[in-house]
Amino acid sequence: MRTAALIVAAGRGSRACGPLPKQYARIGGLPVLARAMAAFADHPGIDLIQVVIGGGDATLYKSATASASAKLLAPVEGGATRQASVRNGLRALRTHQPGRVLIHDGARPFVSADIIDRVLAALSDAPAAIAAVPLADTVKKEGPDRRVAATLERAGLWRAQTPQGFGFADILAAHEAAYAAGHVDMTDDAAVAEWAGLPVALVAGSEANRKLTTAEDLAMADRLCAGAPDVRTGSGFDVHRFTAGDHVWLCGVRIAHTHGLEGHSDADVGLHALTDALLGAIGDGDIGQHFPNTDPRWKGAPSHLFLAEAAERVRRRGGNIGNVDVTLLCEAPKISPHREAMRARIAHILAMDVGRVGVKATTTEGLGFTGRREGIAALASATVIIAPHPSA
User: Fold this and answer.
1) What pLDDT digit, counting tens, does each position of 323-361 carry?
2) What region, left, alpha or beta, does residue 128 occupy, with left being phi > 0 and alpha being psi -120 to 50 degrees?
3) Considering the domain 3-224 in this protein, what is its CATH number?
4) Which DSSP category does 202 fall into?
5) Contact present, 40 and 120 (Cβ < 8 Å)
6) Alpha-carbon gap, residue 323 to 74, rounded angstroms
7) For 64-93, what is the mean pLDDT?
8) Which overall architecture, per CATH, does domain 230-386 show?
């Protein structure tokens, strides 16, 4: 049974008092929405991610999801209320026919894998389940002139959080029925389920799984993310010999030359070295382990596939690529006319700013196999930053 995550990010966040909707504000260097999505992108129990965004937010969304997961579907536009936005998202998911859906607020960036696990487990025994925390504070009812009118009994009261999980067909039907009946302003999806007669299970959420609402919330979240990041550096090296041909591939750019490079794939020595640098930064083997030259799938394959997969492996570990640097060692072809095209190509493959990509070249002064024009070698380095995440 496939499970979809529906992330609602269509609100304007006016109480956050910033120039951007709060889901696009940066905490610890990353957009709030990107952090909220990462927990679902990394979770093995989630197969699809559908995001609902506000009208006019496409550019902000594209920037926030530059390092997108393969699970991510094209965004859909929300409605005038949260309930309408969720309904739009559920309708968009019908084509993909998930068996279950977890609905989550895009402004809750600190949801943990444990919370997702608990909601999914509860759906084995109930048609609906939500993350929540027992109410700990004394609750007062406001009377006239902001005076206390009564103290309410807090026993048995819970604060609802997200994700909220449902059988997909059940919650879609409930939303459609509520809309048809004119019930259009319920504040969460559990309320829609309850109105439709679906029993809703409670599972433990976390105080860390807070919804960011105000400017103070964003500042506090930024401080939580400001702990010492896990900075990793990886290096890579590769070499390919010349063979008969009329061009070489270097750093994703086709360059006319008197020879080709010999290899099982397209023999792009620069991208191969850089792929190994990224894999090395996260301790995830090397290019030969993931793309062996004994596998016919990679015969003649373009090396940007290898580099893109290495970048995706970095993202799945919660990492961001800080910068990359490649040095090509060869007597020929001349690299300088192609340097900027190489930088741009690498930046595109890695979905990062070109200012964080370095490409250099040098000769070996006629020494060694490169000096004898027998082949080309490449050295590469990469910095990966894995941001701290508040525990749940």
Assistant:
1) 999 999 999 999 999 999 999 999 999 989 999 999 999
2) beta
3) 3.90.550.10
4) E
5) no
6) 28
7) 91
8) 2-Layer Sandwich (3.30)
